[in-house]
Amino acid sequence: QVQLVESGGGLVQAGGSLRLSCAASGRTFSYYYMGWFRQAPGKEREFVAAISESGARTDYVNSVKGRFTISRDNAKNTVYLQMNSLKPEDTAVYYCATTAIRWGGSWPTSAAYAYWGQGTQVTVSS
Questions:
Q1: pLDDT tens string 73-126
Q2: Chain-centre distance of CA 47, in angstroms?
């Protein structure tokens, strides 16, 4: 049974930084893509970042490029999201997710992410 547990959210002023962590268990972590998503109040959930199995490739939504960094430590079964230069519009519940199957080639679609954490709240004050 795959389990994902996020931590690291909180309240921060605009321009500040936070690092989110997501600890995974239940299967071989290093075999699977990992992603971060977020959902703001009244909005659809959106993709934020993804990382390949080895960590060699990363992908970001345009709005966070240059500010957020996704990384992973396969020895610790953990994926991270370092968030710098935070803006009020980054306020959301952040979720980590992983695919149901091993993925080759192109980036997984959002629909391919089958396992989700419970989410961690990030609030950025202006």
A1: 999 999 999 999 999 999 999 999 999 888 877 888 888 999 999 999 999 999
A2: 8
Burial class (CB in 10 A: 0-12, 13-18, 19+), 69: middle
Please choose, from the candidates 55, 52, 61, 51, the residue with its C-alpha nearest in 3D space to the C-alpha of residue 92. 61
Instruction: For residues 66 and 82, give the distance between their C-alpha atoms in angstroms, rounded to a whole number.
Output: 11
In whole angstroms, how far apart are CA 66 and each of 63, 97, 111? Answer: 9, 22, 26
For the chain, the residue count is 126
At residue 109, the pLDDT reads 87
Cα 39 from Cα 118, distance rounded (Å): 12
Q: Token pair for residue 43?
A: 């909005």
Is residue 85 left, alpha or beta, with left meaning phi > 0 and alpha meaning psi from -120 to 50? left
Structure token digits, residue 6 = 């996020």
CA distance 51 to 56: 8
Please state, in angstroms and rounded to a whole number, the distance separating the CA atoms of residues 17 and 12: 7
